[in-house]
Design goal:
single chain; 69 residues; alpha+beta; two-stranded parallel sheet; 12% strand
């Protein structure tokens, strides 16, 4: 078992938020979900963290308005 999975299992967390980008985060969740019995909710947030931190610029409004972002 990876050290990350061990750390998560030793915690009291029931929600896991992963932001390493698609599809890496979805693959990680699929591969490790069975090893994380205490986690009820898995959230793959991808670039949302970078957007909120101001690290990555958002798409132009017209792109976002059309659901393409």
């Amino acid at each position: 078992m990876s050290s990350v999975v061990e750390l998560i299992n030793r915690s009291t967390a029931t929600v896991l938020v992963i932001g390493v980008g698609a599809p890496k985060q979805e693959i990680w969740i699929a591969q490790h979900k069975a090893q994380l019995p205490n986690i009820d909710i898995f959230m793959a947030v991808g670039a949302s963290i970078d957007f909120e931190a101001g690290i990555k610029p958002r798409a132009p409004e017209w792109v976002s308005d059309r659901g393409l972002e």
